[in-house]
Amino acid sequence: MSRSTAEIEYRPATEDDYEGVVAFTEQTWSDLDVEVSDYLPDVYHEWIGGDRRQTIVADAGDQIAGIAQVVLLSSREGWAQGMRVNPDFRGEGIGRAINDRLFAWARDRGATVVRNMVFSWNQAGLGQSRALGYEPTTEFRWLHPEPDGAAVDDLDSYRGSPDAAWTYWTASGARDHLRGLALDPVESWALRELTPSILAEAADDDRLLTVGGENGTRALSYLTRVEDQETDDGTQRLAEYGLGAWADTEAAGRLLDAIAADAAERGAETTRVLIPETARYVSDGAAHHVEIADHPDFVLAATVE
Q: Could you tell me which residue ranges the N-acetyltransferase domain spans (predicted)?
């Protein structure tokens, strides 16, 4: 369906756009051999709210032609997500027009960089991101340690100093690979620069986990959220950890055990832990018999200053 872009109105999303968005996002990846469904139909109403985010729809009158959102994660970092273009309007510049408006909104509020995340198997999404000016930044994968309250004898001994954790992080290979990024403590599935204040806040809330050794801190992680998720088998409680970083395989095992114990203490039935997508980190997970996600995820970034 080809029509003039002059017929498209780009405006902030509203509650009334829900049906129009659902109409073209419910089957976003139904034609691919992946076990992933689009989250937008499930979270739309709460997803569009908040002062630190802007959601733009392309309104074609009788249909919603596209949607995307940017969220401010810090004073200078934006996170773009939910970019979807109605199949009836692909190839007509809808994605670029929405993206340009989101970049302008973020720039006007002080952002100098906007990042996004694309599943590694999503060739169309990767191509679109590169066409919109995003450059490759890093890649990560999820580990899924099984919650186990008996995994460590003294969980409190793993609740270390945020200053020591920061010192370890600044000199770690994980920081180099991840370009200083880890999961945002508030926005789900968003990465931002890890800062001393994030670690300090995690420590204050007993969410920081570290592994010590003769030469100081050897590993770190921090809990970002515990949430109940609906699955085909009912409700399942997830504990999510914004980072898994370690110096060697032995430290990896101790940290993963601490995460397993911490998750169990919080009543979680499953976990996910962000780790760098490297042969070392992924194989360390395998060496400790921890479930590993099938695919990595890619993070890209665009300068908007």
A: 8-159
